[in-house]
Amino acid sequence: MGFLLGHSRRAITSKAIMTNPTRFIAVLLLALSLSSPAWAAPRQKIGRAVLTFYWIIDESKPRYRGKADSELRTARGHLIACTTRRFRTDLVMEGTGWLKDGRTVMYDRKVDGQFRFRIARSKFGIGSLGRPLRPYRTVAVDPRLIPLGSKLYIPELKGTRLPDGTIHDGVFVASDRGHFRGLHLDVFVGAGSKAALPFARKGYVSRSHVTIYLLDPPKQASHH
Predict the structure, then answer these.
(1) Which in 9, 31, 113, 190 has the greatest CB count within 10 A?
(2) Cα separation of 64 and 56, whole Å?
(3) Dihedral sign from CA coordinates of 210, 213, 215, 219
(4) Distances in Å between the alpha carbon of 198 and those of 11, 34, 120, 136, 173?
(5) Which residue from 141, 144, 104 is spatially nearest to 121, judged by alpha carbons?
(6) CA distance 88 to 72
(7) Claim: this prediction has a pTM higher than 0.85
(8) How far from chain centre, in Å, is Cα 208?
(9) How many CA atoms lie within 13 A of 206 on its CB side?
């Protein structure tokens, strides 16, 4: 009976199994399904992927001190703010940042060869599906290989202790488009590079490799 969990192992005796085996099997299956929802769901192995992390940057940090000589403009050319060159460069790379005045600004696209940005109402910004980015849950993928909206399971990251004390279940949602090609998983970790430390403590740093399982493909897969 070593495979039973918690108090269930102590409560169920061999006598109970013999007197009502059908009920024992039903209870066992229920206990296993509740103990690990990710394992209970049908899974399709996608393959091994490179793991990286991305985060929101903060203009108020010492890294971004300096002359505010770089403009952040919308696709229509309207001025959002003036900032340092380093902040503007990092904003294009990471995708989302907090301005000193508290606004959340996102990289939008290039217009006539110039980087353009937009203001987001969500604290952490918006993903490619128009959904707010969720730390430790949102991942960016190559949508040619993994449909946007897919629910994914990464067994290597299951059990990670997060900053709020909860334990990660290994389930992520592919709701952002990565600026890369191939099997690559870019995990959104929230504010700043240090937010990736929970995964590093588990042994998974940037450029590590993990296994991706498809748990729940979207009803209407994106092919953009």
Answers:
(1) 190
(2) 13
(3) positive
(4) 35, 25, 27, 10, 18
(5) 104
(6) 7
(7) no
(8) 15
(9) 12
